[in-house]
Design brief:
Helices cover about 35% and strands about 20% of the residues. The N and C termini lie far apart (about 45 Å). It is built from 9 helices and 11 strands. It has one domain (about 5-265): Rossmann fold (3-Layer(aba) Sandwich). The chain has a 7-stranded parallel β-sheet with strand order 3-2-1-4-5-7-10, with helices on both faces. By secondary structure, it is α/β, with parallel strands linked by helices.
Length: about 270
């Protein structure tokens, strides 16, 4: 089933802006929400300012839509109080609002940082258990479990995307494994809006020759990425991350921050 009325939270952000342009004209109504100002609404759009930490506001925000693309939240490492308010409570509020409003499906923007403490020599899939590299990554792992609760108990189709490095092009050696092109990002979101699933966890990654992630679950649902970071290998293959530790784990530069000296426990 194709969703006709779509809500995007975090619509003023980089990924939200990409989807705003790509989904224009593809849905009956596109409701765009963020806590910060956005460009004025165009034909087929609604602009709604909403703080996802406000449960009552989020419930109103979800009314009258078929699907939610939940990009809202803090997209980087931050303190516990900020994470609890926005990424934890905000995700719960979103799913509760969706439940009360009868929303059919939610696409949850998870992150590769939910599994960032796996070493680079491990091939992962959506079935790989979380091993977060940060408070940020932990909130995304939590969100995947929230999605499972509301999928299996309340019937909200939930599509969790562990987004890699969504950039115009790879910018360092790590991104040759983790890159998600903007076009492939849109293709994957379209799968989330149309495919038949209950609860799925997939990786947001292009068809990279050096990928660390087995994305066969996404392919099974109809994802057909067309880009490969290897096309940029000669340009960025020699650009390393900040520390050797960053290069050892899949989470990259999220790993060294506050890293325990007892590294032997984390191999």
């Amino acid at each position: 089933m194709t969703s006709k009325r779509i809500l995007i939270t975090g619509a003023a952000g980089r990924l939200g802006t990409i989807l705003r342009h790509s989904l224009a004209g593809r849905s009956e109504r596109l409701r765009l929400s963020d806590i910060v100002p956005m460009e004025p609404a165009r034909d087929g759009e609604e602009i709604v300012t909403c703080d996802i930490a406000d449960a009552a506001s989020v419930q109103r925000l979800c009314e009258g839509v078929d699907a939610v693309i939940h990009l809202g939240g803090i997209p980087h490492e931050a303190g516990w109080s900020e994470m609890l308010r926005t990424n934890i409570a905000g995700t719960v509020n979103l799913y509760e609002g969706a439940r009360h409003a009868g929303v059919e499906r939610v696409i949850f923007a998870s992150s590769n940082h939910a599994t960032g403490m796996y070493p680079n020599d491990r091939m992962l899939s959506g079935a790989s258990p979380p091993r977060p590299d940060s408070r940020y990554g932990l909130t995304k792992a939590f969100g995947e479990d929230v999605a499972a609760l509301y999928a299996y108990k309340h019937g909200i189709r939930s599509f969790c995307v562990r987004i890699g490095s969504c950039l115009p092009k790879p910018d360092n050696r790590r991104a040759l494994s983790t890159w998600l092109s903007h076009d492939d990002f849109v293709r994957l979101i379209q799968v989330g809006l149309t495919a038949d699933y209950v609860h799925e966890i997939v990786y947001g990654v292009s068809r990279n020759t050096r990928s660390w992630w087995d994305n066969s679950a996404a392919y099974r649902l109809g994802y057909e990425p067309l880009d490969d970071a290897e096309a940029y290998a000669a340009e960025v293959g020699s650009i390393e991350l900040e520390t050797a530790l960053s290069g050892r784990y899949q989470g990259g530069n999220f790993v060294p921050e506050e890293f325990s000296s007892r590294e032997e426990w984390l191999g």
